[in-house]
Amino acid sequence: MQLDMNLVLEQKQQLILTPALKLSLDILQDNSLELKERIEEEVLENPLLEIRENSPLPRRNLSSYSPWDDLEDRPSLAQYLLEQVSFLELSSRERNLVERLIEYVNRKGYLLEEYLKDAFFSSYDKEEMEKALWVLQHLKPAGVGSRNLTECLILQLRDLGYDTSVALDIVSEDLEDVAAHRLDKLAKKYDISLHAIEEAIRRIQTLDPKPGLAFHKSDRVNAQIADVIIEKNQDKLELSLNERIYPDVMVSPYYSNLSLEELDDKSKVYISDKKKRAQLFLEALMQRRKTITNVMNSIMEFQKDFFTIGEKGMVPLNLLDVADQIDCHESTISRAINGKFLLFENQLYPLSYFFPSAVGTEQGRNVSSLHVKSIIEDLVENENKAKPYSDDALAKKVEEQGIFLARRTIAKYREELGILSSILRKNFK
After folding, report:
1. What are the structural domains of the chain?
2. Percent of the chain, pLDDT > 90?
C-alpha cells in the first residue's frame, strides 16, 4: 500500500457567517423575554451602552433583575404551573426546558404541537425532552401538557389511581369501539359484564377533556407576555411590537462625544472595539424590529379574515408564501416567528399558529385545518346532547360544506380539539 501526499487546489461555495450577521440572526430568533436578558447582559458588558432615561423599564441593578419581574399578572394556568415547577428539584437547564414547554400549553391545557417548530429545543436531546414532558404532565391539574385527548384522559385516570382499570384500557385502545357503540364487543374482550363496561364509560365521562379551561373563566391575559400585539381600532387593525418588556438602549453620549486623541493607545483600541460592538448591536435590534413587523404585516394580509371572523377565516399558509412576499429567505421567517406570541382580543397565539396545513375541497380549493376544526367545534356545540354526532355523522356534516374528509381524519381533529367521542358526550338523563 502506497501513501502519497499531494496538494490539491479546489473551489467550493461556503457560507461564512460574519459576527454581525450571526448577532443579527440570534437577536431575530429571540423572543421578547430572551431579548430582554440579552440586552441586560450587553449593557453590563459594554460600558458604551446605556438605558435611555425614557425607557419603559427604569434603571436598576441589572445583575439582580429577573425577566419575570414585569409578569406578575401572567395567565392563571401558566402561573400555577410555573409555581409548581419552582418547588421541584431540577437543574437550571431542566427548569428552563420545562418553563419553555409551559409557554406552549394552551387555554385548554394541551401542549401545542407548535413547540416542535421552536429551535430552542434543538439543543436538548431526546432523553431531556422526554423527562421535561414527564415533569409537565405530572403537574396539576391532571391532564395538563397532554398532546391529544387520549393522553389527557389517560393522565387523569392514572392520577386518580386507575392504572390497571378497564376504563384506562378502553381509553388507551378502544375509544373507536366506544364511539361506534360496540359495547358488547368490549364486554367480550375484557370478559366482564355489559354493566361493568357502562360503569367504566361513566367513569370516563367524569373526566375533564379540557383541564386548563377552569383557569381561564375570569382571567385577563396580560399583554406583557406577548411579543406582538394587534388591536382593533374601529375597522382597522393596528400592529405593534410589545417593546415594554425590554429596555431601550443607546450609545452613551459621553463616549460618543469622547475624543480618542485624548486617550492612550490601549484605551483607543478598547473604546473603538466597544463602540463598533454597540453599533452592531443597535443595528441588529433595528433589523429585528423591521423584520418581525414585515412578517406580521404579511401574515395579517394573508390571514385578514381570521381577524374578523376567527378560525373559519384561516387559509393555508407556509413559510415560503411569506418569504416570497417580503423578499427574504424561509429561514428568516422561521427565526422571526420562532417561540413568539401574538396577543389579539385577550387571546395569545403562537405565531406558528398562523401557518395551518391545507385541506382539499370538492371545488378544488384548499381550506385550512383550523377552519375544519372550527366547523367541528360548532357542530358539537349545537348538537342534540341526547343524540350527539358520531364521527361518521360529523364527516357527513363537514361534507355538506364541500369538504371531504375521512372519518379517521375527523376523529383525529376531534381529539386534537379535546372533544370526547359521541357516546362519552351523550346525556343519558
Report:
1. 74-219 (no CATH), 223-354 (no CATH), 358-425 (1.10.10.60)
2. 36
